[in-house]
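PROTOCOL LOG
Step 1. Enter all chains and additional molecules of the complex.
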Amino acid sequence: MTPDCERADRYAAVRAAGRSWLHAGAIDEATLKTIEAAVPDDRVRLGPVFRLLFFIFTIIAVTSVLVFLVMVLQIENSGSGGLVALFTFVAGAGLAVATDIQIVRMRRSQGGIEAATSLLAISYLMGSLAWCILQYFHALEVHGLVVLCFVGAALAAAAAWRWGYWLYAGTAAVALLGALAGLPHGRLSWIVLPLVAAPFLLRLSESPRLPPSHRSSFTAVLAVALVGLYVAVHLGSWDWQWIEKIGGGARVMRPAHRDALWWLSVAATALVPLVLLGLGIRGRRYLLLILGAGTAVASLVTLRWYVHLAPLWIVLTASGALLVGLVLGLRRWLDAGPGKERGGFTVEPLFQDLARQRILEMGAAVVTLSPEARNLHEEPKFEGGGGQFGGGGSSADF
Amino acid sequence: MNPDVAKAIPELAASGVLPAEKAPLFLRVARGELLSVHGELRALLYAGVLLITGGVGLLVKENLDRIGPVTIAMGIGLTAAAALVWVIAKAPPFSWRPVPSPHLAFDYLLLLGVLLVGADLAYVEWKFTPLGAHWPWHLLIMALLTGVAAFRFDSRVVFSLSLSTFAAWRGVSVAVFSVSLLHAKNTVRLSAIVCGVLFAILGFILARMDRKAHFEPVAVNLGWLLVLTGIGSGIGESGENALRWGAALLLVGAGLAAGAFLARRFPLFAYGVLAGYVGLSRVVIGMVDLEILGCFWFSVTSLLLVLGLLFAQRRMREPI
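Step 2. Run joint prediction.
Step 3. Record the structure below.
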């Protein structure tokens, strides 16, 4: 990122905080205007709906123009496909330059178009490189994929660093793990690398020296690394050799059951969520808390898979009731603390975006809890069996 | 933790921009010294409700013979009653305006109660068939009950469930409408369009009468999605029918986009633009039917649309 982009990024973070204070009623419109004047915006930005529309139609426009050119110039009839790969590479490089011009010179940010051209640039470059690599390494397909993953990781990391998109940083981390899986001792590197990198990534994700976009990028890499670590030590992943299968499947072997490594995996499956939750609570870090909770759920599901504790309906109902009880107890405990907080945690909404969360809840409720529709074509036939188990949300069949 | 905000707060407070009494709280949050888990606890409560309803569904399915229908119906009914009694006891007085939730768990226990009542009603209907040949009416009854609960306890989540249950009564599954409606037959398609129009009108009335006007976006968005998906499902048909549905989608989408442009309704504008473009493309591709011209069509029209959107966003000025 250029110094200009960095400053704009830092100012945007302050303005976003100002808007969250306004939504929470902590400041008024006039104060927000003064804050916005103190940290002015020199970028071209759009709201979320227009951003999405520009993103979609830029993708359609650029892709159809390129396909049209390929057809008109009859490049697809070049035989080996090399000309198409070259054309794709040139298009990708051109789109990368176009993205850079938009972000740096035209000062566009959150505009949709530059996000679309950046995505297309990476996709086209990867497509052409994939053709070259797979042509070159065609005798050893697995190694070709490893090289492709390394190249993809480097490309996505460069895009994240230059343009500040955290999504590309996360993708780079995923591609790197994919590449490591194809190397000898892939599982070991999935364990060692995150363990070594996590403290540095954590520090970088909070470093005041870095602009917010880069901090978010390191947060995304940290999240991928920790998920990778959990997958590598997970009992099911060990038993079914998931990582070895990702790496190509050639070296897949059934591990010895209940040997020392198996028991180590059992212990790690239980411990990783606890450690993440502990670190999250101690450092008040959302990411570690969310990853800790997510991996804890995954470990409990794994426990249910290996050990038949009780019928599934009891497990579901009891864990749901336990969860509700736990939340209510936690809320009461935090609320009873001095100033309605304990250890730096509070249940007060503070400056969280509750409106967005409610929209998500509504969407989730409509998608997951809506009842199944009656079949209009079956009526008026009646078989005495009634309808489906549903209404007001329930949708399971009897 | 946000170091940039943490750095800016003392400067803004010193220059008098930020109220001095608010600055310490802002600073603690920005430094990560105070963390709100409000949203996370709400998400966990939602997950808890999902787990319980999933468990109850399995209980009924797997233990029907062992436990007996009356016990099951009573068990679910009592649990639902317990949740709803708690909600009634905690509920603030009714108002046509938005009412703040009195408790973190209020919305979720209401949702649990409503879901369990729905499950119980459907189970009783399935097992004892009190409605006989009119069994689908239990969905309408449930939609009405859920709607009353949504209005009384001011829950938009429950209101959205009420609308989707009503749609289910008319044969439209909102849960998977993106999949099922695309392969729908005419009856379901028309049903979806009619439901969508009804929801949009309901939203209009609520806003016009200023009665629970904050429910309007739920009804209007769901309504237009149903209308557009219903019409859009017709473009997959063969021959003239596809062109007719494509033309209808173009007209309705363009109309919606124009109306939303004037009213500055951003999501509705997006639905209208996307639907209109799909409809127009379907009509043109259906008539031209040439590979290269098809590509030419998409490249030119999408570029023109980007230019049109640039004009529209300058006029509409959507907040960031």
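Step 4. Note key features.
The mean pLDDT of chain B is 88.
The first strand of chain B starts at residue 35 and ends at 36.
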